[in-house]
Task: inverse folding
């Protein structure tokens, strides 16, 4: 067996160990260790990605001496490796770029605990990406829930504590519903590993009574994970959670945590239940409608709010809607678009959340629009990065957002039903217009001089801000310009998924 | 709109709950009765029950299942508690940011002296009688995880409860003489990293088809079940320390001896 096949295991076990290690380290050492460690993980996952592209075969890795269906298993394919790589690039960038705010938001003596949580979060993200077992998914879902609440409360101000309590209650509800779904599926199939479960479910699906039970299980599980990831009727927690968290946490929560839940849901659909069985249930259409509603409602709410961070958070709700719409469209084209958007949105949204506090900083620490006037002129670097992120969100060509919208449109026209084509095309048009409306308004606002000339505050940006921002911008351009390459890889990943 | 919603909020909540209950009951009513083709496939359960003893060396099949067959899940599970501890330290641990005057007086020993239980004869006496038994019982459950119901999580919980009773009956000052934050850090670090590396080693050797040289022992003896006993001990220590850590943090905002507080005295 090639040694590279061990790498997914290392990413999980070493991350767990790093979490415990950072508890022992001094704050400064913990930060440096975490940055180097994540760089190391990126190398590991890069190797896995090249390996699976080279061999053209996914591989499963038995955790211990007992093969499936008795023991645990993890699995790596092109899609998993790509998602994992995106997650880690975004994570390392967020930690580096948001550090200045973290230092002031949190008591210095506790900073190492933040990195402990970040490392545990990495372990959970990696496990959710690689897992081939539903119950492993649940266990690491719990760790992800706890760590995401932990990185939220570090600011220790009333608003974040309130947001964290609400976020935790909803998340626990989501975890509970997911667990109920898994229990029901285990009850009828007797398996927890995805491959044998899928086979048994395919057998059972011919029986109408069993199909109904599967339907209930899938429904509960979907509701649970869509609460956690913030699909339309459950997106009300997003503005407070993302808006008041420290910038690194906001970037981590919006770009990685919610995407990990979506990826787990997708994995459950695709690998544990099976698309053929899923097509007998109305789940695709429900997700499509909710996704479309989320796209429109999220954008409307983003227009109404008067706080920059809340606006970006509501735009997140809209973008989550896009992803669910892609899953709801179904078929190779729909899933490809959804997975592409998972990556595009992770990269863009973290860039926005890491830039808004810098714009606010030169505007007297305020995130209200009237105070932000001219802030893009006072700190041109942050203004430029914000503009890039915003243009990508709107869907301007050469940026990632454009490619993903194009993919959604292509997925829509490949549908057989006219109603779906019209619905999705209309939703894309309306949502893009609304996106453009509020983002362009913001860009104009931050570049309008506020009249107080001669008092320009030039904020000095450190290299540990420039470098991650450049990485994110480059990744954004890569997804935008080389989208055919990425799409081709995702398609190959989905074929072997 | 919001007013109308607020008025019907409770009603909507009740309807949602009833709906969920109804759907779940309906789903359960559709299941075939137990044992009759339900679950459809029993190969997993069969192997655990029939070959569990010889393959894991543990008389307690549940321990064999969670620490051997599905050890990866348990590896994650053992870190859940640690994560919770970190979150509680972040939120409740005293630091410059959350030190406020009211908060401070709330946590001082003077405030506690109004309800100092360690001056109460009954509590102390009960402590003297109960504690040795409790600690021994915890250790017994911890060490017998591979033989009988029990193991790291339950044994550790009993030991943690015993530590808490110890603190209640004899005061934090007595506990602080042995149980410091440094001890908690060291124990957690050693136990959890031992867990990660031991299990990582087993996963690595298992997947690569290398013999892992871990003796299974004679089933039924105390030294049996391969790695189950050491892992149980590691988990037990983490659970005990974490439980006491929670109590201490909720009670006074720090684990163990608090230096800043001593300075003020």
Result:
């Amino acid at each position: 067996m090639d040694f590279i096949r061990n790498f997914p295991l290392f990413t999980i076990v070493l991350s767990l160990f790093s979490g415990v290690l950072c508890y022992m380290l001094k704050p400064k050492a913990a930060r440096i260790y975490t940055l180097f460690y994540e760089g190391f993980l990126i190398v590991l996952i890069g190797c896995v990605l090249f390996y699976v592209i080279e061999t053209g075969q996914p591989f499963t890795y038995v955790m211990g001496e007992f093969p499936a269906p008795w023991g645990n298993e993890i699995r790596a394919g092109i899609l998993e490796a790509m998602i994992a790589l995106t997650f880690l690039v975004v994570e390392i960038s967020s930690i580096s770029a948001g550090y200045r705010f973290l230092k002031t938001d949190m008591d210095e003596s506790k900073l190492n605990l933040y990195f402990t949580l970040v490392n545990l979060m990495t372990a959970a993200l990696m496990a959710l990406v690689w897992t081939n077992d539903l119950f492993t998914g649940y266990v690491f879902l719990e760790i992800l829930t706890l760590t995401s609440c932990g990185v939220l409360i570090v600011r220790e101000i009333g608003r974040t504590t309130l947001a964290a309590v609400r976020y935790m209650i909803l998340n626990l509800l989501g975890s509970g519903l997911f667990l109920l779904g898994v229990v029901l599926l285990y009850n009828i199939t007797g398996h927890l590993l995805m491959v044998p479960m899928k086979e048994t479910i395919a057998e059972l699906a011919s029986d109408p009574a069993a199909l109904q039970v599967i339907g209930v299980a899938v429904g509960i599980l979907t509701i649970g994970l869509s609460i956690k990831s913030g699909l339309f009727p459950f997106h009300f927690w997003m503005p407070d959670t993302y808006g008041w968290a420290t910038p690194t946490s906001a970037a981590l929560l919006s770009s990685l945590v919610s995407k990990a839940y979506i990826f787990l849901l997708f994995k459950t659909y695709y690998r544990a239940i099976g698309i053929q069985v899923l097509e007998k249930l109305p789940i695709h259409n429900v997700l499509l409608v909710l996704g479309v509603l989320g796209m429109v409602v999220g954008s409307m709410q983003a227009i109404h709010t008067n706080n920059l961070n809340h606006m970006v958070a509501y735009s997140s709700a809209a973008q989550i809607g896009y992803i669910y719409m892609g899953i709801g469209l179904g078929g190779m084209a729909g899933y490809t678009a959804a997975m592409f958007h998972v990556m595009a949105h992770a990269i863009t949204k973290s860039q926005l959340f890491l830039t808004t506090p810098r714009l606010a900083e030169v505007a007297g620490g305020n995130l209200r629009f009237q105070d932000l006037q001219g802030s893009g002129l006072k700190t041109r670097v942050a203004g430029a990065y914000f503009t890039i992120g915003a243009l990508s969100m709107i869907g301007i060509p050469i940026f990632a957002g454009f490619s993903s919208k194009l993919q959604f449109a292509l997925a829509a026209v490949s549908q057989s039903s006219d109603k779906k084509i019209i619905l999705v095309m209309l939703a894309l048009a309306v949502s893009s217009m609304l996106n453009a409306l509020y983002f362009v308004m913001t860009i104009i606002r931050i570049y309008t001089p506020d009249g107080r000339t001669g008092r320009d505050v030039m904020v000095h940006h450190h290299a540990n801000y420039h470098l991650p921002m450049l990485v994110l911008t480059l990744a954004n351009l890569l997804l935008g310009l080389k989208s055919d390459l990425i799409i081709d890889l995702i398609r190959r990943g989905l074929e072997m998924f | 709109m919001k007013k109308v919603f607020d008025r019907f909020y409770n009603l909507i909540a009740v309807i949602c709950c009833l709906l969920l209950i109804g759907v779940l009951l309906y789903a359960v009513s559709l299941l075939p009765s137990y044992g009759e083709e339900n679950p459809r496939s029993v190969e997993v359960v069969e192997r655990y029950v029939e070959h569990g003893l010889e393959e894991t060396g543990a008389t307690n099949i549940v321990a064999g299942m969670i620490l051997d067959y599905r050890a990866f899940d348990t590896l994650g599970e053992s870190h859940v508690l640690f994560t919770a501890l970190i979150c509680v330290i972040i939120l409740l641990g005293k630091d410059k940011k959350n030190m406020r005057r009211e908060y401070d007086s709330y946590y001082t020993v003077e405030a506690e002296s109004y309800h100092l239980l360690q001056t109460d004869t009954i509590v102390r006496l009960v402590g003297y009688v109960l504690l040795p038994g409790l600690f021994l019982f915890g250790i017994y459950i911890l060490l017998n995880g591979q033989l009988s119901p029990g193991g790291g999580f339950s044994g550790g919980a009993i030991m943690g409860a015993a530590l808490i009773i110890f603190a209640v009956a004899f005061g934090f000052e007595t506990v602080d003489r042995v149980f410091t934050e440094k001890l908690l850090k060291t124990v957690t670090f050693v136990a959890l990293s031992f867990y990660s590396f031991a299990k990582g080693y087993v996963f690595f050797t298992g997947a690569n088809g290398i013999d892992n040289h871990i003796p299974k022992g004679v089933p039924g003896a105390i030294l049996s079940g391969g790695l189950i006993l050491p892992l149980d001990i590691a988990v037990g220590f983490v659970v005990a320390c974490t439980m006491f850590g929670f109590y201490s943090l909720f009670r006074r905002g720090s684990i163990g001896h608090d230096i800043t507080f001593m300075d003020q005295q």
